[in-house]
Amino acid sequence: IAADKTQNMHNITVMRGGKIIYECNFGGHDGGTPKMTFSACKSITSIAIGMLIDEGKLSLSESAASIFEDKVGIIDKLRMDALTVEALLTMRTGIVFNEAECFASANWVKSYFSSAVQGKIGETFSYNSLNTYILSAIVYKKTGKHLAEYLRERLFEPLGIVNYAWEKCPMGIEKGGWGLYMRPEDMGKIGTLVMNGGVWQGKRIISEEYLKKATSAHAAVPMEMGDFDYGYQIWVGKDTDTFLFNGMLGQNVL
Description:
Blueprint: E1 11-16, E2 19-25, E3 35-36, H1 42-54, H2 64-67, H3 74-79, H4 85-89, H5 99-102, H6 108-113, H7 129-143, H8 147-156, E4 164-166, E5 180-182, H9 184-195, E6 199-200, E7 203-204, H10 208-214, E8 228-230, E9 235-237, E10 243-247, E11 251-253
Helix pairs in contact: 1-7
């Protein structure tokens, strides 16, 4: 890998039983430094949604537009009524408003729900990081706590994760679908938690029921996009018993 300069590898960390058994850094990079995870953090946002569902504060069938009824007009609320929490999780919203258009908007929630839709809500897979942003906004709406604060006491502290930062939108809400900086080992800990059905060092952190759904395929992904279908913000192997947190430029928890 070091000899293959096309890879531009920064770090490889192999974990077993929640502990590092192999680690290698390249090009002067330090495994102890938080790295931009890009879209791999979408899977962490999914965990927050699962915790809300476990607490009885949210349901998969809940209409996202109804959650933000104070920010969504009557016409848009009717138009988006079928846009459920599960549609957000599985990237089946058809919403056109995307990352590139965020730069022209200060209110991403309002712009999202007033956006055009391609296809039928709840059916066609269409990858869009703003779906995950709305999930982050739901956490704040339901709890009064921002995503990183909500996860700090429920996920990060129990797993010993202290060195992280999450970028926010102009309204102060974590971006959810991108913008998280975290150490490779800490990303690996969260992957281990999911692999172990929600238990970390003997303590249940999130329900096994939610994680089974999250790591099952709900949306078929075109073959040209690779060997994974889509669960709840987690990629799921089409022909292998595998799940993946995936971010741009090779940020992977497998």
